[in-house]
Amino acid sequence: MSYYLIKIAVTTLLVVAISEIAKRSSLIGAILASVPLVSVLAMIWLYIDTKDVEKVTALASSVFWLVLPSLALFLVLPPLLKMGLNFYLSLGVSVAVTVVCYFVMVSVLNQYDVKL
pLDDT class for 115, splitting at 50, 70, 90? Predict the structure, then answer.
């Protein structure tokens, strides 16, 4: 049980630290947020939990393919906010567009027999 609490604490502290740093410097916050910390932590936790390199490899490969559609959020959100749309509405629309992009990417990958 304490291992799960450590995982939660480390992951939470990183997210909070990045958001606090971003208040002071959007550049440094963006650099830290763009580093795939969550993915790296997930791979570390997965390896510690399973010692299975194949599972880590599969996760890394899947993350690679799904990073591409996740970029839609960062393309859609800024223009919506600049148009004066409410933050939460803009975020919701951006997330919805991203979800659609995920489905499209998974469909395309399935057509090429790429298994996630």
Answer: confident
Q: Give the tens place of pLDDT for each residue, 45-84.
A: 999 999 999 999 999 999 999 999 999 999 999 999 999 9
Q: What is the DSSP letter of 113?
A: T
Q: What is the DSSP letter of 35?
A: S
The type of residue at 61 is S
Q: What global pTM score does this model have?
A: 0.76
Torsion over CA of 85, 87, 90 and 93, rounded to 10 degrees? -140
Please report, for residues 27, 53, 58, 59, the alpha-carbon distance to residue 45 in angstroms, rounded to integers and kept in the order given.
28, 12, 14, 12
Q: Report whether 18 contacts 35 (CB < 8 A).
A: no
For residues 90 and 64, what is the distance between their CA atoms, to the nearest angstrom? 26
Listed residue (69, 67, 60, 19) closest to 40, CA to CA: 60
